């Protein structure tokens, strides 16, 4: 990406302060290179129109590639996979197969509908990636914000994959970016409706850590005033107590939107997140 385009991308986002994270990302997508990978769009993992994913497959794969299934944020209420083309391009450029999934959101569904969709997407992807040069035994779930909740919940509670006809052992690891894992009691009226009550412990990923779980990479920014960094710290403490490998990275001077933007062209110097995810996947999810 040329210096001119980098500056233009930054100006575009800086001028979009009133937009959502997804809106900013959609603007950045204008500058995402389209070569070096192919996109298989709108692959259906279920019957609902929102149960679809886009698959980013690197060109010229040399051996079976690791696979990342990404769920975006949006307060379990909105989001579109097409806004996250830059995420797919970033890690396809590292030789990974990447899936970016839509899922049903409120008010169409409430908890646990969006987590159940995540499990269906895992099952579908595991069956498909070998045909495209992927390694089904190196399947990672990842997400930002509400999407991090989905990814980490799938790696915390084995019941969801079992219900979908899958196997908890399919998950090699989970990557949570600025995720809410321990946010009770709820105070927001919409969230109370989404999760069916103020203080339902079963809705929280941290509640389900009662044994060893897949390795996790939990990252956040110390300026995040949307989802407290304490979520990552408390979740990591619970995982370590259960004997599970976990790595926590807290990036200085980074907020809730900035952390996901730091994976995009023109912003990657803001954090080491790209490097941290690549290392986590390449080392098999070995934690601290």
Structural class: alpha/beta
Distance between the termini: 34 Å
Number of helices: 10
What oligomeric state best describes the polypeptide chains here? single chain
CATH class: Alpha Beta
Instruction: Based on Cα principal axes, name the global outline.
Output: globular
What percentage of amino acids are in beta strands? 15-25%
Strand order across the biggest sheet?
A: 1-2-4-3-5-6-7-8
Helix fraction, binned, reads 25-40%
Provide a descriptive summary of the structure in words:
With 288 residues, this protein is α/β, with parallel strands linked by helices. It has one domain (36-282): 3-Layer(aba) Sandwich (Rossmann fold), CATH 3.40.50. The chain contains 10 helices and 8 strands. It has an 8-stranded mixed beta sheet, with helices on both faces.
Describe, in short, the structure shown.
Helix content is 33%, strand content 20%.
Question: Which properties best describe this structure?
Answer:
single chain, 288 residues, alpha/beta, Rossmann fold, eight-stranded mixed β-sheet, 10 helices, globular
List the helices and strands and how they pair.
Blueprint (H helix, E strand, L loop, with lengths): L2 H12 L6 H8 L8 E8 L7 E7 L6 E7 L13 H8 L4 E5 L11 H16 L5 E11 L1 H11 L2 H5 L7 E7 L11 H7 L20 E6 L8 H12 L4 E6 L4 H6 L11 H10 L6
Parallel strand pairs: 3-4, 3-5, 5-6, 6-7, 7-8
Antiparallel strand pairs: 1-2, 2-4
Helix pairs in contact: 1-2, 4-5
